[in-house]
Amino acid sequence: MATSTSVPARAGTGAPAQRRPASSRGPLRVLGRHPVGMLFAAPYVVFILAVFAYPLGLAVWMSFHDFFFSAPGVAVERPFVGLDNYVAVLTDPDVQRSFRNIAVFLVINVPLTVALSLVLATALNGAIRFRSFFRVAYYVPYVTASVAVVAVWLYLFSTGGLVNQVLGGAAPDPSWLVNKGLAMPVIAVFVTWKQLGFFILLYLAALQNVPKEVYESASVDGAGRLRTFWSITVPSVRPATTLVVILSTITGANLFTEPYLLTGGGGPDGASASPVLVMYQRGIEQGNPDVAAAIGVVLVVGVLLVSLVNRYVLERD
Amino acid sequence: MATPTTVAAGAGAPAVPPTATGGPRRRPSRTSWPRMLLLALGALLFLFPFYYMLVGSFTAEPDPSLAGLAPSPDELTVSNYSAIDGSIGLVRSLVNSGIFTGGVLLGTMVLGVLVGYALAQLEFRGRGAVFALMLLVQVVPFQLLTIPLYVLIVRDYGLADSYLGMILPFAINSTAVFVFRQYFLQLPRDLFDAARIDGAGELRVLWSIAVPLVRPALLTALLLTFIGPWNEFLWPFLVTKEQDMQPLAVSLANYITNLSARAANPFGAILAGACVLAAPAVVLFTVFQRHFVSNDVGSGVKG
Predict the structure, then answer these.
(1) What tens digit of pLDDT does each residue of B65-122 get?
(2) What residues in A contact B174, CB-CB < 8 Å?
(3) Which positions in chain B touch A260 (Cβ < 8 Å)?
(4) What is the pLDDT of residues B139-167, one digit of tens each?
(5) Three-point CA angle B209, B210, B214, nearest 5°
(6) Which of B123, B177, B205, B226 best tests the A interface by mutation, with the highest count of A CBs <10 A?
């Protein structure tokens, strides 16, 4: 993706440079034809270094040291402890459970997201009545704050809530959000619902790049609706599917607000705690930022591995 | 994925064709009723919680049975809104949300447009490195940065309970920078060269020529950027401990976890707060829905 986007930029700069002789700017040529661009880019570069590069390095550094909160400006010793923090993280049953929870989340969320967003995007593609209305309906949850929509789900899925009222005797006991087996699936379904609009838009963009002739020839050959979907639509949007899988994996790895609010801090008994929630508890509530940083590193390495595997599996042929 | 071409389509006139009355090419209404049924069912599932949120926020006595779906008009009240306002101070929270979001938007628009324009239209030493940096930033997950940023901003710089501390990590949205660059790439270089020959400075070229040409596209980027800080919970939650400084998402969340147990109709008050938090985003995106097209979202995340 990086190469495909940078190509037009290079092609564009090549053309005007030929018109103007290189020698006309003298020694300033080393800075490029528009050195002012450096000035324009400077705030962004400073921002990236201060808010991303330095904290990123600090996170890795912290995870290898005995790091604790101290008053600002006070020199304290932070000895190197090697892999101690990682050992602490990997042997911590709460952390292990949070990673198992996120596995449950992903197994429900990712296939559901891919299937529903592709089907709805396909249905929405082309000339449809009320198209604008449907598009707005689908992305309203995505643009709304999680805290706001969590509130209504809390109400819907509470013990005496509407969902249980409708289900009557079929309502689960204990109820959805306080049930060890159901708390995480409810969160997975919530996040699927919340994010689906974004992925529908993503698939819509991909579908618009599929040549119409392919569909026309399929219909000439007498292919039915389902057959066309399986044989043409699904393979045509495969790169977008890879992206959807990776992005929904990242969303899952970032999970914090939903277990924190929907299940009252990752309950019952940690059954819906996410790694970021445990990171928050260890790092900020319990004052072990070194352990929390190690959780962060483990989580990111995990996301990278899952992404690589996804990419490999989905783009194999 | 053909990023430049999709953006080219997105930046022009609204990409939504006027199909409401049925275009001349197809007869959508007659042939696709299963499709309409599917879409309608989906829309119901997506919109129902919002309807329920609104109903719940205006009923004094919570009725979770099916009858509660359509309360009679004389049951409706605004008492939940005054209850949540009394607990968390809606106006103050909204002002905080507004300053937080406004700061992020200002930083992204001013500094992001500068770097986006430089990356697209200016040839300078290190441009490739800046571009690579921008792509790199998008793969660094924010959760890895949460703890070190907390250590730096809250502990070392003492920016807890300040707007600057809230805004800083989001001050320039890299996704928006990427979108800006895509828009500016489409403008022909000759246009700018002509202005430069006439003696215009680079800032003037940017402000008087480039920005007006991509104005509709900038609105899209603005909307995309708006969602982030308005909905953000974890970071402002870590930075603000004083209720006076908390954005609405944070104070409402604290109300849900701590205070609601003491209220007479806790769900009503929570839902009233949720409606206030949801309304600005929902209204903005409904009004500007033509500008929020699939192509832009697609290009925004392809970096």
Answers:
(1) 777 788 877 778 899 999 999 989 999 999 999 999 999 999 999 999 999 999 999 9
(2) 48
(3) 253, 257
(4) 777 778 999 999 999 988 889 999 999 99
(5) 120
(6) B123
Q: Where residue A207 sits, what CATH number does that domain have?
A: 1.10.3720.10
ipTM: 0.84
Distances (CA, A) of A271 to A71, A95, A97, A266: 35, 11, 8, 6
Position B180: which residue type? F
Helix residue spans in chain A (DSSP H):
2-19, 36-48, 54-63, 84-91, 93-124, 131-143, 146-157, 162-167, 183-207, 212-220, 225-228, 234-236, 238-253, 257-262, 275-280, 289-314
Q: Is residue A201 part of a domain?
A: yes
The amino acid present at B28, given as its one-letter code, is P
Select from B130, B262, B92 the least CA-distant residue to A9. B130
Residue A224 lies in a domain: yes
- Whether B275 is in a domain gets the answer yes
Q: How many domains does chain A have?
A: 1
Chain B interface test: which of A143, A251, A305 (most B C-beta within 10 Å): A143
Q: Does the residue A95 lie in any domain?
A: yes
Residue A216 lies in a domain: yes
Q: Is-contact A70 A62, C-beta < 8 A?
A: no
B27 in a domain, yes or no? no
Residue A26's pLDDT is 54
- Tokens 């994010």 identify what position? A195
Name the residue in chain B with its Cα closest to that of A196.
B46
Residues of A in contact with B295 (CB under 8 A): 205, 208
Domain that holds residue B175: 82-293
pLDDT tens column, B244-294:
999 999 999 999 988 766 677 788 899 999 999 999 999 998 888 777 665
Q: Does residue B94 form part of some domain? A: yes
Contacts 24+ apart (CB under 8 A), B157-164: B157/A72, B158/A72, B159/B239, B160/B239, B160/B240, B160/B241, B161/B239, B161/B240, B161/B241, B161/B242, B161/B245, B162/B239, B162/B245, B163/B96, B163/B99, B163/B100, B163/B103, B163/B245
Q: What is the share, in percent, of chain B residues with pLDDT greater than 90?
A: 46
Number of independent structural domains in chain B: 1
Any idea which residue has 């952390």 for tokens? A95
> Which residue range forms the structural domain that includes residue A193?
84-142+183-315
* A chain contacts of residue B185, beta-carbon cutoff 8 Å: 8-9, 12
Backbone dihedral angles phi then psi of residue A65, each to the nearest 5 degrees: -125, 165
